[in-house]
């Protein structure tokens, strides 16, 4: 069974031109599967929204939101939040984090990241990490899925998992 959007972003999908403008603004190229998601849905709530990391496959967190491009009030905007280092107050690590785009958030304040070089989706938990270099910080990112499409397909329904407590 595929994962479906149960509540669409009321501001609608975006065009390929909108996506190209965004890529030009950030000087990065998004993965094809993520661009397809933005073009089709551009946010919204999924029927299945629980995820785990590869290192802790039985511990599940809730995906609270995936950011949207050019959206209105009440939605976290990808245009404003894409820069992981800036959004998470990690400016001193900015150079080492430039290939990661902050695409969404989960319960307990975790960040969902898309690695633009590998296509991999990972999680950053700011409450459990104390590092001194960008290399150390990248080493703490917990892989969730090899691609954005695999991340969405791997999300579970709340009845299928035991949620983690913060």
TrEMBL record:
Residue ranges annotated for the Knr4/Smi1-like domain, each copy included: 13-154
Domain of life: Bacteria
SUPFAM superfamilies: SMI1/KNR4-like
Designated name of the protein: Knr4/Smi1-like domain-containing protein
Lineage of the organism: Bacteria, Pseudomonadati, Pseudomonadota, Alphaproteobacteria, Rhodobacterales
């Amino acid at each position: 069974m595929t994962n479906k959007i149960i509540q669409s972003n009321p501001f609608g999908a975006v065009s390929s031109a909108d996506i190209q403008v965004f890529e030009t603004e950030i000087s990065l190229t998004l993965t094809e599967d993520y661009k397809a998601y933005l073009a089709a849905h551009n946010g919204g709530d999924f029927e299945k929204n629980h995820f785990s990391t590869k290192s802790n496959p039985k511990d599940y967190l809730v995906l609270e939101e995936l950011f949207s491009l050019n959206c209105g009030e009440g939605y976290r905007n990808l245009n404003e939040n894409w820069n992981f280092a800036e959004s998470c107050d990690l400016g001193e690590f900015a150079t080492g984090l430039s290939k990661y785009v902050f695409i969404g958030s989960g319960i307990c304040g975790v960040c969902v990241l898309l690695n633009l070089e590998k296509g991999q989706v990972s999680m950053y938990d700011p409450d459990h990490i104390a590092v001194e270099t960008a290399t150390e910080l990248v080493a703490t990112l917990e892989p969730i899925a090899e691609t954005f499409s695999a991340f969405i397909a791997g999300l579970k329904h709340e009845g299928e998992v035991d949620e983690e407590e913060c």
